[in-house]
């Protein structure tokens, strides 16, 4: 296990654009392969439950499927980019940047601080632009990791 | 401008912080200072008293209840959902600045203390005084009423005729025990009006007003001016002492002003006015009220039951609920048949809201969040104990669906209880005093019917608007219990 919030194998620069569930599935599988999610079915159900409460799409082409789940072992971020966009229910259209935030149930405050720092970056224009322009997965992971300062 | 903001979202890991960041950026761009309290899962740092005192306005951007909102009563407030703060932070900042310009924050020279002392207008001050009085009365009513009810249960309705226990007490006779209970209860009841008057006065002008208030209340009892007399005596005593405290006493007697001079002069004046001036008219008014209550029957009584039911459910332990409750309790001291009917209806109507929500969370789990389901389990007991406040967590999370539903059910219960002629001599106790109730079967039917009505309505309304219904966090009830 690692203290990194995100690593290169959690970045998908060519996210399936067939729909929200497909995109979520793809990112969740990456988290599972990395050993950060134990029970994929449980995790997907928790993500979906949050999505049902209120869609997580935000103006400016962002989707942030997220949850706190018992299936999560370590606070993690999976990042996906889609050229055509995936609908996360935002008013102004589909999301091209998808941040899947996975938090362990009852995670301690230190963990949550990292996620809070990430959430704050999501509203910054330069942060978004950098991710739009990035060309390889490792660079994306490095950039995000550096930004949240973990 | 110095702005404050609170952000909070259901999961507490994303939107809370995004909104905070967006507001900070927008405030900086517009040239204002802002401090954001993020009520999320990474813990939140509460505003300091200095920040609260210096602020010009506050933005509450939250999809769940903001914690400790009463810190902000002195500030112009802009509220919105948390998403709106992310996409339209600059507009919220503009609105906050506009709000602060239109109605500047209330400030006091002492930072920190400023927050609590500012605000309430005359009407809410008067209400505060009366509620202080009522809150001190209620334990007397509860203990005294239950003792009286036990006396009746043990010794039958002739217990009022029993000889005083001072004239002989038979340890083995249940009639003696019943008489003991009844007479103790009656003594406690005799204190209701003086305690009410005393503590209303106390709420207004502190300790020196206590004696004039109490004695004024005793005069109200003496002149048969009843509860109305007690209210007048309390307000009179409080007002008088409040004014007298401003006198500049010579140094020599300044020390004995609060313990001797103020109580002495205050009591003489208040007692005199109560005896000579207001006693008679108030006694007439009280008799009129009692006669009117006793004259209520048939459809009028049922309408009254429904009305009281609506009031009991409207704010679940707040001023409207307490007004209905105080009306019923005031009636108890008249011991008229109608008053007992009203007491029964009020208690039943106060029990149904928590019961209905408990039922709704049991039969339609998915309409409620995990926290609400937990509250639902507790609500069974709270409802059964006539603690209407048990419904507050649900109403706080979804007032527009919950409050009309529970009002409808409580109205049904109040009306049915009146129609069935159930009576209650104790002011409290919930299901635990049902053995003491007149026509207990009808009473239970009334409670069950109202519970079903409310539960069905809540479920129907929640199903209609399910998408937005659930929130993850619901604040714990703030109010003290009904009694």
In short:
The complex is a heterodimer of chains A (150) and B (483). Chain A has 150 residues and is α/β, with parallel strands linked by helices. Chain A has 5 helices and 6 strands.
Largest sheet descriptor of chain A: 6 strands, mixed
The average pLDDT score of chain A comes to 86
What is the C-alpha radius of gyration of chain B, as a whole number of Å? 26 Å
- The name CATH uses for the topology of chain A is Mannitol-specific EII, Chain A
Give the termini distance of chain B in whole angstroms. 44 Å
Structural class of chain B: mainly alpha
From the spread of the alpha carbons, the general shape of chain A counts as: globular
Mean pLDDT over all positions of chain B: 83
Uncertain residue ranges of chain A: none
Largest sheet of chain B: 4 strands, parallel
Beta fraction of chain A = 15-25%
Largest interface between protein chains, with number of residues from each side? A-B, 28 and 27 residues
Using brief descriptors, characterize the structure shown.
heterodimer; A: 150 residues; alpha/beta; Mannitol-specific EII, Chain A; 5 helices; 21% strand; B: 483 residues; mainly alpha; Rossmann fold; four-stranded parallel β-sheet; 65% helix; flat; disordered C terminus
């Amino acid at each position: 296990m690692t203290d990194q919030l995100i690593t290169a194998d959690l970045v998908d620069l060519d996210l399936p654009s067939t729909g929200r569930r497909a995109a979520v599935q793809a990112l969740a599988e990456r988290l599972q392969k990395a050993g950060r999610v134990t029970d994929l079915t449980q995790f997907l159900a928790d993500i979906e439950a949050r999505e049902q409460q209120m869609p997580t799409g935000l103006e400016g082409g962002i989707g942030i499927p997220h949850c706190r789940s018992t299936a999560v072992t370590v606070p993690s971020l999976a990042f996906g980019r889609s050229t055509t966009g995936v609908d996360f229910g935002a008013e102004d259209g589909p999301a091209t940047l998808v941040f899947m935030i996975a938090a362990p149930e009852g995670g301690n405050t230190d963990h949550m601080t990292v996620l809070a720092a990430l959430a704050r970056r999501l509203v910054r224009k330069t942060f978004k632009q950098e991710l739009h322009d990035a060309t390889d997965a490792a660079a994306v992971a490095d950039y995000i990791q550096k930004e949240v300062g973990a | 401008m110095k702005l404050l903001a609170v952000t909070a979202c259901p999961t507490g890991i994303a939107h809370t912080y995004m909104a905070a960041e967006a507001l900070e950026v927008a405030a900086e761009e517009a040239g204002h200072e802002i401090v954001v309290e993020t009520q999320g899962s990474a813990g939140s740092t509460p505003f300091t008293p200095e920040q609260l005192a210096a602020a010009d306005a506050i933005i509450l951007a939250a999809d769940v209840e903001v914690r400790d909102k009463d810190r902000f009563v002195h500030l112009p407030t802009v509220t919105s959902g948390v998403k709106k703060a992310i996409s339209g932070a600059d507009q919220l900042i503009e609105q906050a600045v506009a709000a602060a310009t239109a109605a500047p924050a209330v400030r006091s020279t002492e930072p920190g203390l400023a927050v609590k002392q500012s605000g309430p207008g005359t009407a809410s001050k008067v209400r505060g005084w009366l509620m202080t009085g009522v809150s001190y009365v209620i334990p007397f009513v509860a203990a005294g009423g239950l003792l009286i009810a036990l006396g009746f249960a043990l010794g039958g309705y002739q217990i009022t005729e029993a000889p005083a226990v001072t004239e002989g007490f038979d340890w083995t006779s249940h009639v003696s025990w019943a008489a003991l209970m009844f007479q103790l209860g009656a003594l406690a009841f005799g204190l209701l009006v003086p305690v009410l008057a005393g503590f209303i006065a106390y709420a207004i002008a502190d300790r020196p007003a206590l004696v004039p208030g109490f004695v004024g209340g005793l005069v109200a009892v003496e002149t048969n001016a009843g509860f109305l007399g007690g209210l007048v005596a309390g307000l009179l005593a409080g007002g008088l002492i409040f004014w007298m405290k401003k006198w500049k006493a010579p140094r020599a007697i300044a020390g004995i002003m609060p313990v001797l001079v103020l109580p002495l002069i205050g009591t003489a004046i208040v007692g005199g006015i109560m005896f000579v001036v207001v006693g008679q008219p108030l006694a007439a008014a009280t008799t009129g009220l009692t006669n009117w209550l006793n004259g209520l029957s048939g459809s009028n009584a049922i309408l009254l039951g429904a009305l009281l039911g609506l009031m009991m459910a409207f704010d679940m332990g707040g001023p409207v609920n307490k007004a209905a409750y105080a009306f019923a309790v005031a009636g108890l001291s008249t011991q008229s048949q109608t008053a007992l009917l009203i007491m029964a209806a009020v208690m039943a109507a106060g029990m149904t809201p928590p019961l209905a929500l408990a039922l709704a969370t049991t039969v339609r789990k998915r309409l409620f969040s995990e926290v609400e389901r937990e509250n639902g389990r507790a609500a069974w007991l709270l409802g059964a104990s006539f603690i209407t406040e048990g419904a507050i967590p649900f109403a706080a999370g979804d007032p527009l669906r919950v409050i009309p539903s529970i009002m409808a059910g409580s109205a049904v219960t109040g009306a049915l209880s009146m129609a069935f002629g159930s009576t209650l001599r104790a002011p409290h106790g919930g299901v635990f005093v049902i053995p003491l109730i007149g026509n207990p079967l009808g009473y239970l039917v009334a409670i069950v019917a109202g519970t079903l009505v409310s539960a069905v309505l809540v479920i129907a309304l929640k199903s209609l608007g399910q998408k937005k219904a659930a929130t993850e966090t619901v604040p714990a009830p703030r109010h003290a219990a009904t009694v």
